[in-house]
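Notebook p. 47: complex prediction with S-adenosylmethionine.
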Amino acid sequence: MNADRWLADTRTSYDTVAVSYADQLREALAGAPYLRAALALFADLVHAAGGGPVADVGCGPGHVTAHLHELGVDAFGIDLSSVMIDVARRDYPRLRFEVGSMTDLDLADASVVGLLAFWSLIHVPDEAVPTVFGHFRRVLRPGGPLLLGFHVGDESRLKTQGYGGHPMNVHVHRRQPDQVAAWLRDAGFTVEAQMLIDPDESVPGAVLFARRQS
Ligand SMILES: C[S@@+](CC[C@H](N)C(=O)[O-])C[C@H]1O[C@@H](n2cnc3c(N)ncnc32)[C@H](O)[C@@H]1O
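Predicted complex, structure tokens below:
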């Protein structure tokens, strides 16, 4: 897939749904005990690593960034969609949110102690994942924790509408945790833990904890 094309389609799609996405997802963590547990563990790992800035990459409307803040994490958000960032700034005016892409992360080397990508890698095509993980490794301090959340499966599908029936034109890639773990190891991460969520559902989720090697 043309690199600029998928980025442009993803950006436009999330610009279109940003307000309704925020309305639907704002309270979602309240009903997601396993995700809350994963975020609490991630916060513990960040504190144990000495604390410091944490990037929520593909933050959407910022509710996960805000949840991390409530856990004492100095989190800030980055998203491809400028409308998502507008909504995040509106809803959480005390927090920092910036427009940017994980394919070309505009952060200094070793500038964050932790990095989270929750259901944002799902739009990145396979051929771009090594580049993205290279950026994640570059911006993380040695030993810094990484938390990924993604849909589990083998298929990719084109999502043509969502979040209240708005038009979208975005590919959603499901992946096996072993494949994601292999990409992470190739990029210089140690994989430490993974959790499968809703394994009996048609599309389970996975959260995967890794750490930048020294
Ligand atoms: C399904 S939403 C997840 C949002 C949020 N992390 C959450 O857990 O609700 C996917 C988000 O990833 C963002 N995204 C997709 N590709 C991106 C990229 N290359 N760089 C940064 N953000 C991206 C989208 O704009 C969208 O806000």
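Notes: The longest helix spans residues 3-25. Residues 100 and 192 are 28 Å apart (CA to CA).
Next step: compare against the earlier run before touching the bench.
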